[in-house]
Amino acid sequence: MDDELNSQLKPLRERIDAIDAQLISLLNQRANVALEVGEVKKHFNAPVFRPEREMQVIARLQDMSDGPLGNEHISAIWREIMAASRSLEKTISAAFLGPVGTYSEQAMYAYFGQSIEGLACPSIDEVFRSVEAGAAEFGVVPVENSTEGAVSRTLDLFLETQLVIGGEIALPIQHNLMTQSGTLQGVTRVCAHPQSLAQCQHWLNANAPHLERQAVASNAEGARLAAADPTVAAIAGERAATHYGLLIANALIQDDPHNRTRFVMISKQAAGATGKDQTSIIVTVKNESGAVYKLLEPLARHGVSMTRFESRPARLGSTWEYYFYIDFEGHRDDAPVVAALDELGQKAAFLKILGSYPRAR
């Protein structure tokens, strides 16, 4: 049996080895050209990382592929190839909500690739501050969840910063209940981020109603606490379980099996147009009849499709004033968007463009 198996596998493995030899040669050729690109960028003081260019490369390759590799495979492979090429020019850094093991860290690696220097921050506020101060070139912050909606603190901080959104990624969120022992014996409380507790509340009610629920700054912080105390359980991803040496007592406990969180990349660097872009803005309206309709009407008239509309109460001023957070298709340099934004600026009491960036594929 083994001899027959090996005899059939041998020629296939030899073909794979030959293809791998070609691939490594081509990858090194690609890396050399990337180094030449880096020298040109250096001469013109151009940024090393251009999200719109990398998105265009991945989209073009996905369109060229006849399979069997799927779009998600091509995206994952080429993100790492481009990340490795980038690191030959310069190691770039990104701040994320820490500690190590959070979904924010996972989103950072999924977006930038593994060849990036991560800076773990204790809060979303600190992510913004780190990028503004230059401690990191980019930041990764959660902006909305498919189950629990907007991440309020991120929305509030967009009002206070000059940073812009340069990219986005939607990450599947798979929550696991983890402990030191891999069981709930002797466990009295569960620690996790408030949104994660909310996303698992029905499962917890049905399967672990005795556990006290304690909100902490991040899921990774909950995992750290569980690693130090056998009476504590945490809700987090597999990455946190591995990092903190925990065992999964129950896997996939999120109430919504399609639970996803959208993260955005913030920096001082605006992204160019790709043809498949999205623009995010914040507006307030004048206190008059039909003000919201008048605000949105230019988008419809210029054929600009709105993809998200969120309201947040203003913390200063009138009790019933609101900021509206709007996402719509198109880049701020596209003619229909230029026209719509020009009219919005005239109608709105306040308008802030948070950025135009490639839409997640």
From TrEMBL:
Residues annotated as domain ACT: 280-358
GO cellular component, one term: cytoplasm
Residue stretches in coiled coil: none
CDD domains, per the entry: ACT_CM-PDT (cd04905), PBP2_PDT_1 (cd13630)
EC number(s) recorded for this UniProt protein: 4.2.1.51, 5.4.99.5
Residues annotated as domain Chorismate mutase: 3-93
Pfam families: ACT (PF01842), CM_2 (PF01817), PDT (PF00800)
Catalyzed reactions: prephenate + H(+) = 3-phenylpyruvate + CO2 + H2O; chorismate = prephenate
Isomerase is among the record's keywords: yes
Domain called Prephenate dehydratase: residue spans: 93-268
Subcellular location: Cytoplasm
Gene Ontology MF terms in the entry: chorismate mutase activity; prephenate dehydratase activity
Pathway terms, separated by semicolons: Amino-acid biosynthesis; L-phenylalanine biosynthesis; phenylpyruvate from prephenate: step 1/1; Metabolic intermediate biosynthesis; prephenate biosynthesis; prephenate from chorismate: step 1/1
Swiss-Prot/TrEMBL site (Essential for prephenate dehydratase activity) positions: 261
One of the protein's GO biological processes: L-phenylalanine biosynthetic process
PANTHER family assigned to the protein according to its UniProt record, in alphabetical order: PREPHENATE DEHYDRATASE P PROTEIN, PREPHENATE DEHYDRATASE-RELATED
Function field: Catalyzes the Claisen rearrangement of chorismate to prephenate and the decarboxylation/dehydration of prephenate to phenylpyruvate.
Protein name according to UniProt: Bifunctional chorismate mutase/prephenate dehydratase
Native source organism of the sequence: Paraburkholderia acidisoli
